[in-house]
Amino acid sequence: MAVNLRPVQALQLWQQIALAEVRDDAPDLTLRQTAILLTIYLEPPPHTVRGLAAHLGVTKPVITRALDTMGRMGLVSRHRDQNDRRNVLVKRTVEGALHVERFGDLIIAKAAELPL
Amino acid sequence: MAVNLRPVQALQLWQQIALAEVRDDAPDLTLRQTAILLTIYLEPPPHTVRGLAAHLGVTKPVITRALDTMGRMGLVSRHRDQNDRRNVLVKRTVEGALHVERFGDLIIAKAAELPL
DNA sequence: GTTGAATGATACGGCTCCGAAACGAATTGG
DNA sequence: CCAATTCGTTTCGGAGCCGTATCATTCAAC
Fold it and tell me: How far is A38 from chain B (nearest CA, A)?
């Protein structure tokens, strides 16, 4: 069964999640950072800077900077590829997995609260 | 029937929408701007700077600046309240309504594409 | 009136992000 | 080997957003 939403439900879902994130004290990830983080955690590895840049349709420095920021937050880690030392492999972290999991729970909770 | 999502579905939904927005050429709204815009379009008026600030749990300058930006984009408009000229009433625009509507359609489309 | 409160806007310094260009390191191909 | 390519990073100037503090305007109370 596909997930069917009515227009107002769809917008209310997004509103409620955005509100929850804004009200939360934790620093917000940008839309791009969110897209990168979820790609890393939902799609099969390996993940490289170049691959992520192509996937998002952005330039490489955008990925480098986002990985800098999320690396400082402990959400992802970087390692040189030992087979081709030009590559950087982006890996998941325990803290990042927890963050993503909590975010999924938030979406589920807000979806369940939607009026009919 | 409530909207039930499984964890991976919830995260994939968010990922697909974030990806679509990032790939789009249009400038991204920040999370706060999004929350403000959806609040204006989903909740009954009147909307004031102070009311929106309280609703989001942020300071008033955040709202003023977001309204500046979204006003330049044509997504909202501001008008002095003639009953109490200290207040500013935030109003919807045709362009903003179209933007919100398109965004709702995007969510619905991505939700319908989710794997089971 | 005049004082005090309320509302929204503005000024300031700081931080992050952006795109384009240039860069160093590593690999490939002749 | 050595030039050309690939990959990720860094640099640069510019732009946007942030929180705090302050401001002008308007209203309310006395």
Answer: 6
Å: A67 CA to D8 C1': 12
Chain B window 4-43: residues with CB closer than 7 Å to nucleic chain C are: none
At residue B1, does pLDDT exceed 60? no
> Which nucleotide lies nearest residue B62, CA to C1'?
D18
Q: A81 CA, C27 C1': separation in Å? A: 13
CATH topology of domain B7-112: Arc Repressor Mutant, subunit A (1.10.10)
Residue B94, token pair as written in the block = 């045709």
* Mean pLDDT confidence for B87-102: 95
Write down the domain spans for chain B: 7-112
